[in-house]
Design brief:
single chain, Aminopeptidase, M42 family peptidase, protease, hydrolase, Peptidase_M42_dom2, aminopeptidase
């Protein structure tokens, strides 16, 4: 059974400076395939805490500590957020879209968006017919990719194009970061820029506590996870790590309309989540759990069946097999503009990654049979 939360006082890790960065980082758009502005923000924040850095051809950013050490440990998150592409512009100036990642068409109506063009941001809205004009009951038409469209205040295709909008322009929601009830961080793209923030905070703690690691640490903020773990796949082959610890979000299943029999029981505020799946190497997972227990960090458990659906899978099956494990952050309302994460869970994921790193030895061999 997962370790229950104790009466041990919560240890706050995030400070005012790092929280200000987190808010700025979340509010900055970083759509899949167009992550570079967010990556620059992330690198600027992490540079004081690392020895070197590397950015690959598609934008995955890597902060490095102890670059020359032969044994390599990765801590990883992904930087991209779901978005839309302009797909079709009508003669009367309306814009139809296709997904870039797992964007939810049902939340789109009445949302405000930013269309990213070479001329800068163009504002638009997902329009939707007034309730007075729609058929009631079972015949009422639901939002789909075929009927949601953007209105940027134009009356012709030519007027839209004169704003710099063309097929292929990327579109993001403009909803911004907030703190709810002094308990939750709320915003879009907490999946998974919260992960990028947390691994950056691990680097900060290592530096501020003057920790001398006996191995090379590669702090990886990968691109293109939302379309198939592509950034992690590329960077794993470049780094060739000996072990990888990945962090991503997972569903808080205590919210309405989620079946716990299918999804398991995970709740915000009860700690980081360790996963069980074929890609999760058992001995690395045991080290996570031992580190949590040793440091009185509450945690939860999750069974992920055939795959985790995260960058863990990409690292695990690269380079003839890399011992990998996943630490998940419980999150409510995934792939909406009001994703919610608990402040204490953020602190505890940071602490768990940090404490686990302190328990990895140079040349640590995670194999079952030696």
């Amino acid at each position: 059974m997962a370790k229950k939360k104790t009466d041990t006082p919560h240890i706050s890790v995030v400070n005012e400076t790092s929280l200000a960065f987190f808010e700025k980082y979340i509010n900055n758009p970083s759509p899949t395939g167009f992550e570079w502005k967010g990556q620059q923000l992330w690198l600027d924040y992490i540079k004081p805490y690392i020895d070197d850095y590397y950015v690959d051809n598609y934008g995955t950013a890597v902060g490095i500590i102890n670059k020359d050490a032969p044994y390599k440990v990765v801590i990883e998150a992904h930087a991209d957020e779901i978005s839309w592409f302009v797909n079709y512009i009508t003669s009367d100036g309306l814009i139809y879209v296709i997904r870039n990642g797992g964007s939810d068409h049902q939340i789109a109506p009445s949302k405000r968006v930013n269309i990213h063009t070479d001329n800068g941001i163009v504002k638009a809205v997902f329009g939707w017919p007034a309730i007075h004009t729609r058929q009631a009951g079972d015949k009422e038409e639901a939002p789909t990719l075929k009927n949601i469209c953007l209105d940027c205040g134009c009356t012709s295709k030519e007027e839209v194009e004169n704003l710099g909008i063309h097929v292929g322009c990327v579109i993001t929601y403009e909803d911004e970061f907030m703190v709810l009830n002094n308990r939750y961080y709320v915003g879009r793209a907490l999946d998974n820029r919260a992960g990028g923030f947390m691994i950056a905070e691990v680097a900060r703690l290592l530096k501020e506590n003057n920790v001398q690691l006996p191995f090379g640490l590669y702090i990886v903020n990968a691109v293109q996870e939302e379309i198939g773990l592509r950034g992690a796949e590329m960077i794993a082959h470049h780094i060739k790590p000996n072990v990888a610890i990945v962090t991503d979000v997972t569903h808080d299943t205590t919210t309405p309309m989620i079946n716990k029999i299918v999804q398991g029981e995970i709740a915000c505020g009860k700690g980081p989540v360790v996963s069980y799946a074929p890609a999760v190497q058992t001995n690395v997972n045991k080290l996570l759990i031992e580190s949590a227990q040793k440091s009185n960090i509450p945690f939860q458990r999750q069974a992920s069946s055939r795959s985790t659906g995260t960058d863990t899978d990409a690292f695990a099956y690269s380079n003839d097999g890399v011992p990998s494990a996943l630490i998940s952050l419980p999150l409510r309302y995934m792939h909406t503009t009001v994703e919610m994460i608990h402040k204490e869970d953020v602190d505890n994921v940071i602490r768990l990654i940090y404490e686990t790193l302190l328990n990895i030895q140079d040349g640590h061999d995670f194999r079952y049979i030696k």
